[in-house]
Design goal:
- With 324 residues, the protein is an alpha/beta fold.
- It has 10 helices and 14 strands.
- It has a single domain, classed as Aldolase class I (TIM Barrel).
- The strands form 2 sheets. A 12-stranded mixed beta sheet has the order 9-10-11-8-7-6-5-4-3-12-13-14. The protein has a two-stranded antiparallel sheet with strand order 1-2.
- Strand 5, helix 3 and strand 6 form a beta-alpha-beta unit.
- The structure holds S-adenosylmethionine and iron/sulfur cluster.
């Protein structure tokens, strides 16, 4: 079992399988020139499988596939089929654009719970945020997957004066369908133009909803990074991921593997462990994994504190190359 110096047990691995994407979300992908990782530097299908097996041997019970956009990788089917053979709960975070091509594969691999990212319900604003025109396709795919009884969470990054005026529209999505909306506080990463006053906080989100709805808190599962709520008579729920104002680092169980095979013990960790190079050299990566977990900082990668964020001093990758 992968336990760190704060007695946190790590049984959840998020694997990025590409740092490329068919969108260019303004909060995720740097605006200036971005170099995608060369194909030979990415973890190959067998490398993802074998490295994942080592994590599973050491207690990992849940694997989330992410990116970049995982569904643009041509061999994503092989990756999912291999991982589906492991004794883990398999999930994915996707922008939803290509989901319709993979519905049978998702059923076959029992990948029945998905996070789909969507930051606006206005087609024009979608083009401004994501810089591409796929709004209708994503909406159709959300409907398709909900109708096929997948458990669907819709991730919305809330940014002040960009989409904070749409919170109640997203709440409406939870009314007649079992859609679970997750409002995410805007987080700072390399070159994503983060500013303190662009963050729309947990309290502000709840205040907006409170003006129109009565809601109750749902109980927190261990390791949850969200605060969950339910509005009476709504089929779905809503939640807030409040990393910037109220993080849940104290029982964090997550580890990450970037598409180029570097292990990160926190979204904000400054340091990384190059598992892929070690694996390619035939070295023992189990000890590297343990060492990485033991170096995990208490909170927020040790890079900032709630209410005291100097984004210029944070050393990290851009979100697209970490894998959210
Ligand atoms: N392409 C897929 C997608 O968009 O769902 C998976 C990768 S994306 C990096 C994973 C999640 O990270 C998305 O829900 C996205 O909205 C979120 N994300 C990206 N940058 C973020 C930021 N600066 N602050 C908060 N969430 C962010
Ligand atoms: Fe691509 Fe997802 Fe990042 Fe948007 S949030 S640019 S869809 S990786």
């Amino acid at each position: 079992m992968l336990v760190d110096t704060f007695q946190r047990h790590h049984d959840y691995l998020r694997i990025s399988i590409t740092d490329n994407c068919n969108l260019r979300c303004l909060y995720c992908m740097p605006d200036d020139h971005y170099n995608f990782t060369a194909p030979d530097k990415l973890m190959q299908v067998n490398e993802i499988t074998e490295i994942a097996k080592i994590f599973v041997k050491n207690g990992v019970k849940k694997i989330r596939i992410t990116g970049g956009e995982p569904l643009i990788r041509k061999d994503v089917d092989k990756i999912l089929l291999n991982l589906a053979d492991l004794p883990v709960k398999l999930t994915m975070t996707t922008n939803g654009i290509r989901l319709n091509d993979y519905i049978d594969l998702m059923k076959q691999t029992k990948l029945l719970s998905l996070n789909i990212s969507l930051d606006t319900l206005c087609a024009d604003k979608y083009k401004l945020i994501a810089k591409r025109d796929y709004f209708d396709r994503v909406m159709q795919n959300i409907k398709l997957f909900v109708d096929n009884n997948f458990h669907i969470k819709v991730n919305m990054v809330v940014m002040k004066n960009v989409n904070d005026d749409e919170i109640l529209d997203f709440i409406e999505l939870t009314k007649d369908r079992p859609i679970h909306v997750r409002f995410i506080e805007f987080m700072p990463f390399d070159r994503n133009d983060w500013q303190h006053d662009k963050v729309f906080t947990l309290d502000q989100i709840l205040n907006v909803i409170n003006e129109s709805y009565e809601f109750t808190s749902l109980s927190r599962e261990p390791h949850d990074t969200v605060k969950k709520f339910k509005i009476k008579d709504h089929f779905g729920t809503f939640a807030v991921i409040s990393t910037m104002t109220s993080p849940f680092c104290s029982d964090c169980n997550r580890m990450r593997l970037t598409a180029d095979g570097k292990m990160k013990n926190c979204l904000f960790s400054k340091t990384e462990t190059d598992l892929l190079s070690a694996f390619r050299m035939g070295l023992d990566i189990e000890s590297l994994i343990y060492k990485n977990v033991l170096s995990k900082e208490k909170e927020l990668g040790g890079q900032f504190e709630v209410g005291n964020v100097d984004d210029s001093s944070i050393v990290n990758r851009s979100m697209i190359s970490i894998g959210g």
